[in-house]
TrEMBL record:
Organism: Bos mutus grunniens (Wild yak)
Domain of life: Eukaryota
The protein's name: Zinc finger FYVE-type containing 28
Cellular component terms per the entry's GO annotation: early endosome membrane
Length: 163
């Protein structure tokens, strides 16, 4: 796909929301195994509702791979140096489905923050930064307390933010 449709790849920006231990080289293989298992009727342990919700996507993903294999087989019999539009379309469709399945599957396995949760977290961070800045201005805190990671700050900053 990197050679055939490098500019048409599905966006994978959501991967930054995955926990660090999830992002590794063989994630794609694990996802593919999960898709095949779900398409065959298996259920993810303790995730029955998520499994049933992902099953149609997993089936469509496996069908899409068959389309890609067929396009590649046809292409291999013709000319290996060019990519037909049929093959590009099949790869684009597969890539979009795989990205969608990746987000769904990983979100079912580990907690992945929604855009709303990220927004709320950013708001809290800004609130705490503004609170520290104002507390320094009013003399409630000293720069030394912040530099020394004073334990009392862990309780003071949220309380000041509420006030």
């Amino acid at each position: 796909m990197d050679a055939c449709i490098p500019q048409d790849r599905a966006p994978r920006d959501f991967c930054v929301k995955f926990p660090e231990e999830i992002r590794h080289d063989n994630l794609a293989g694990q996802l593919w195994f999960g898709a095949e298992c779900l398409a065959a009727g298996s259920i993810i342990m303790n995730r029955e509702l998520e499994s049933m919700a992902m099953r149609p996507l997993a089936k469509e993903l496996t069908r899409s791979l068959e389309d890609v294999r067929g396009a590649l087989r046809d292409q291999a019999l013709r000319d290996l140096n060019t990519y037909t539009e049929k093959m590009r379309d099949a790869l684009r469709h597969f890539d979009v489905l795989f990205a969608e399945f990746e987000l769904s599957y990983v979100s079912a396995m580990v907690p992945v923050k929604s855009p709303r949760e990220y927004y709320v977290q950013q708001e809290v961070i800004v609130l705490f930064c503004e609170t520290v800045e104002r507390a320094l201005d009013f003399g409630y805190l000293t720069q030394d307390m912040i530099d020394d990671y004073e334990p009392a700050l862990m309780f003071t900053i949220p309380r000041l933010a509420i006030v």
